[in-house]
Amino acid sequence: MTNEAFQPSRRSDVAPFIAMDVLAEAAKLEAGGRSIIHMEVGQPSAPAPRLALEAARKALEHGRLGYTAAAGIQPLRHALAEHYKREYGVEVPSDRIMVTTGSSAGFNLAFLAAFDPGDRIALTAPGYPAYRNILRSLGLIPVEIEVSEETRWCLTPEHIEQALKDGPVRGILVASPANPTGTMMSSDALTELIRFAEAEKIWFISDEIYHGLDYSGDQKSALEISDNAIIINSFSKYYCMTGWRIGWMVLPDQLVRPAERLAQNLYISAPEMSQLAATAALGSVQELEAVKAGYVANRELLLEGLPAIGFDQLLPVDGAFYIYADISRFSDDSLRFARQMLHDAGVAATPGVDFDPVHGHKFLRFSFAGAHENMKEALVRMSNFLSR
């Protein structure tokens, strides 16, 4: 019996993360004996790197896993500093690096440390749904800006100038490569947007969770452009460690202590075993590049195979492991279409309304992070489904 005197908070009234709802429904079908090909979530099918697994086993054998400093263990923070020097040619003091429980905790910390209730933060539509949902739950205002082919699905200073006409903008949030589109900002476009943000005294948050998974050769960290950028990254994607819930941030000096205080109180520290495993994972590039080669093969397969079965309007796939496909020739209800395809064809994909409440009804997102044979089978199943 529900007592009407006790109700959930208004801040909890956020939209569901539909990709996770699709995953849950797919799991129920699998429990009933159905064969399901998972293209709904951005989860690598490869295990964590061998060195990470060995480090975790060693930690378990030691027998004691405890709290760490809220900012993370020093070996991991130093290794990440070396990573930025090696990969981007940027010197980052390790005390500006903070280890988090996945990128999700990083977004929470960044939003809480940089913004006050009522602040407006600009982001793209389509875009990762958790951005707007976290912002709303924290009393912040997501300013979703429709991007299109005209700007190659990226935010521009002109977009922000238009948004400023409706009120102050305190933050700009950009992902490159992006989710769900897989598109990347060019070096010049990223530089121009960051310089604009700095001139307008707007925090710039760069979601770099898909770094390492680029196919165009134009990957650039916001740290190469500005020390004031807030960087959020994770071991979930390139490093194949989704379930380990381990990520990191690079913070401007003035946000280091505020973010640390928040982490101390919100979750104390990231799991020690995951931190030890992540430290080892940074030395697994050769193994991880082999995994990436699998994504390259899947990308090529789907970029040829999806148009052949009717999904012939695809956004540029510069990075990540997603294809955002226009399904308007088949349906104007991506939620219903995705559910039908799941139940009738056994292929799970994410409806575009998860990423874009306005125009997402005519899009699906396909993840190609799975096994190559599964991608081949998915094309066969979807072809049969579409030709009924």
Describe this structure in words.
This protein is of the alpha/beta class and 388 residues long. It contains 12 helices and 12 strands. The chain has helices spanning 18-31, 50-62, 74-88, 102-114, 129-137, 157-164, 187-199, 253-266, 272-281, 285-309, 334-345, 372-386; strands spanning 37-38, 97-100, 120-125, 141-146, 171-175, 203-207, 230-234, 247-250, 322-326, 347-348, 350-351, 363-367. The strands form 3 sheets. A 7-stranded mixed beta sheet has the order 2-8-7-6-5-3-4, sandwiched between helices. It is globular, with a radius of gyration of 21 Å. 46% of the residues are buried.
By DSSP (H or I, 4+ residues per run), the number of helices equals 12
Percentage of β-strand residues = 5-15%
Any idea what the radius of gyration is? 21 Å
Secondary-structure element string? HEHHEHEHEHEHEEEHHHEHEEEH
Strand order of the largest sheet: 2-8-7-6-5-3-4
Based on secondary structure, the structural category is alpha/beta
User: Biggest β-sheet, characterized?
Assistant: 7 strands, mixed
Strand tally: 12
The mean pLDDT is 95
What are the segments in which pLDDT stays under 50 over at least 5 consecutive residues?
A: none
Outline: globular
End-to-end C-alpha gap: 45 Å
- Residue share in helix: 40-55%
Q: What's the helix and strand layout?
A:
Layout: H1 18-31, E1 37-38, H2 50-62, H3 74-88, E2 97-100, H4 102-114, E3 120-125, H5 129-137, E4 141-146, H6 157-164, E5 171-175, H7 187-199, E6 203-207, E7 230-234, E8 247-250, H8 253-266, H9 272-281, H10 285-309, E9 322-326, H11 334-345, E10 347-348, E11 350-351, E12 363-367, H12 372-386
Helix pairs in contact: 2-9, 3-9, 4-5, 4-8, 10-12
